[in-house]
């Protein structure tokens, strides 16, 4: 089982990146493996020019392809999700998110930008094949703070919503893993002649 976090902010100190790090820590505490990938991991030239055949784009597609779940975070600018994240998503295959559990996370200046998740990001995720998109977690800039030393402070309400979303994601991933393993075991039993299908 593999879980990938994908941040659409170029800054490690951004609020959206902080929420993603908190989610990853919670998943690890639940005993799940998490790998991280961010906007900074893909050369700017490849992003700007859309180098689909570039090495970084190929590595991105391989990591997304291997993941059972993807957590995607973005800051909201001008009532839309970050353009850098869109450039990353444009490097993926058409159905890259098919069969995956997806959790969108966003931060913005005011509650009015909450709809950027519903009307901006979720349609793009659906276009990439995502059919199991969990309810997103949105926080305003006032609800998340990152200190100079990197310490993350999240309002209790946001923390509770994020933790609940992460718990739902882990339950979905674990349930899918059990179903796949049971189907694999039944298939092996049938091939071994244990019963006829």
Automatic annotation (TrEMBL):
Q: Which GO terms describe its molecular function?
A: FMN reductase (NADPH) activity
Residue span(s) of domain NADPH-dependent FMN reductase-like: 1-143
List the EC numbers from the record: 1.5.1.38
Please verify whether the record's keywords include Flavoprotein. Answer: yes
**Domain of life, source organism:** Bacteria
Keywords of the record: Flavoprotein, FMN, Oxidoreductase
Q: What is any one GO biological process for this UniProt entry?
A: alkanesulfonate catabolic process
Database matches in Gene3D superfamilies: 3.40.50.360
Pfam families linked: FMN_red (PF03358)
The enzyme's first-digit EC class, named in words, is oxidoreductase
PANTHER family per the UniProt record, alphabetical: FMN REDUCTASE (NADPH)
Q: Which family does it belong to?
A: Belongs to the SsuE family.
Protein's recorded name: FMN reductase (NADPH)
Tell me the name of the encoding gene. ssuE
